[in-house]
Design a protein that fits this description.
4 domains; Rossmann fold; Alpha-Beta Plaits; four-stranded antiparallel β-sheet; 17 strands; six-stranded mixed β-sheet; single chain; alpha+beta; about 450 residues; 18 helices
Length: about 450
């Protein structure tokens, strides 16, 4: 491994653009990480290695003075439904760009490619099948986008992607997200990198989709890297009743956190409730002078935040073993739509309605109750595969009822969405009168 580490380090001098940027080659670093894990002894809990941050100190962040050369290329992500086998399509795309990556799942193909002609690529793909998802980002704009310089704050916030926080929101607030994995067939991807519309489409087709935790080694690498990068970190962990993340972090801290840099809090929350706790804590960090101020805000938010999750069909909870098959069958037969809340003790049943109108009436009633206890509530609406309906039907009604509310629109975390299924939506509530600097709403 020392020889491979030296090769990675030398890449920062061998390639002119890397030398100008002051970083090592990403592909070489990726191979180093792969082989470091490959040759590691099987008992990863007792294995001790030098962290990536320490091994390549000073060579992992772009210099502020670095300006990449314009290429005119676009980074394109596509989901294509097709009737051909993967090999011919792969051959048809090799001359359309570079950095081509393809993942096939029966008749669905996920494609990542860098191209200078996105319009020509789209026209070509239209001849090969139906494009069900298209994302096109100019690479020069992404490369030139300045990274935020973090201000001095009492803590750097870490949380689980099981909270409904988009990567864009996490980037704007300077939050580190720790992923679980979404598993479909033989494919497992970090949840924040999955395409929700693709996952929900598979579920509606009756395909089995599940979740999995990151390995103990991966989680420990994240804790160590964050503490070395940011110093004092506050890990607002998804409730321990839902995952083993709290136990994993606590175990790492006991064995390795000699400087007591990682503070871990079991929020007892998930999905939108966890998201609001994290977002408002991050805001409070910006104006706080001491750690105690931040921790007091966290305690207030954990005690006061609420969430109501509206299930559309029970069959997905049945598939995941969270509701009996008999209960799920009769529930759907009678058009029962349960309302649940994630709490410190686990999932709590709040009520049952029989229609979308009943869901909205229930949500508005709970919102008005909550708004009576605070001056300006923060409302987070979360959607699964029903974004437009949540945005145009529920959002305006909340705005009319509580004009002073801050309304955020976010995708429901896929960890939650996979268990509760397409058609699910959620409303999380938090007091907006904490001493926090407001962040512009995501969409509403």
């Amino acid at each position: 491994m020392p020889a491979l580490a030296e090769t990675v380090t030398r890449s920062a001098e061998l390639v002119p653009c890397l030398k100008s940027a002051g970083v090592v080659d990403a592909g070489s670093l990726g191979m180093y990480i792969f082989f470091e894990g490959f040759f590691r002894p099987g008992d990863s809990t007792s294995y001790s290695s030098t962290s990536i941050i320490e091994s390549f100190a000073g060579l992992l962040s772009l210099r502020q003075s670095f300006t990449p050369e314009a290429t005119g290329d676009h980074c394109v992500d596509v989901v294509l439904q097709h009737q051909q086998r993967q090999s011919p399509i792969h051959q048809n795309l090799t001359d359309r760009g570079d950095s081509l990556v393809m993942l096939e799942d029966d008749d669905t193909l996920k494609i990542h490619i860098h191209t200078a002609d996105p319009r020509g690529l789209r026209d070509h793909l239209d001849t090969l099948g139906e494009v069900v998802h298209w994302a096109d980002t100019p690479m020069d704009r992404a490369a030139l986008k300045q990274q935020p310089v973090p201000a001095a704050e009492p803590y750097h916030i870490i949380t689980d992607a099981a909270g409904s926080i988009s990567r864009d929101m996490a980037h704007r607030l300077g939050i580190t997200l720790l992923d679980s994995y979404i598993v479909s067939g033989e494919t497992a991807l970090p949840e924040s990198l999955c395409l929700p519309e693709h996952i929900y489409a598979l579920m509606r087709q009756g395909r089995r989709v599940t979740t999995a935790q990151a390995s103990t080694f991966e989680r420990r690498q994240h804790y160590e890297s964050a503490c070395q990068l940011y110093g004092n970190c506050l890990y607002l962990c998804v409730g321990s009743v839902y995952t083993g993340n709290f136990a994993a972090a606590t175990s790492w801290k006991k064995d390795h956190d000699q400087g007591s840099l990682l503070r871990i809090i079991d929020t007892g929350a998930a999905s939108g409730r966890l998201a609001l706790i994290v977002i408002l804590t991050a805001r409070s960090c910006r104006g706080a002078e001491t750690k105690d101020e931040v921790l007091a805000a966290v305690a207030t938010l954990i005690a006061s935040c609420r969430e109501y999750v509206f299930i559309d069909e029970l069959k997905y909870l049945v598939a995941g073993g969270r509701v009996s098959r008999t209960g799920g069958f009769f529930g759907d037969l009678l058009h029962m739509k349960p309302v649940i809340s994630p709490t410190m003790e686990g999932v709590k049943k709040e009520g049952v309605v029989h229609s979308s109108k009943g869901q909205i009436a229930f949500a508005l009633h709970k919102l008005e109750e909550f708004a009576g206890s605070c001056r300006r509530p923060v409302v987070m609406l979360q959607y699964s595969d029903n974004e437009e309906w949540v945005k145009t039907t529920i959002g305006p009604q909340i705005r009319r009822r509580i004009p002073e509310a801050e309304i955020l629109l976010m995708p429901l975390s896929l960890t939650s969405g996979v268990h509760m299924g397409p058609g699910t939506w959620s409303m999380a509530l938090a007091p907006g009168d904490l001493n926090t600097a407001a962040e512009p709403p995501e969409a509403l």
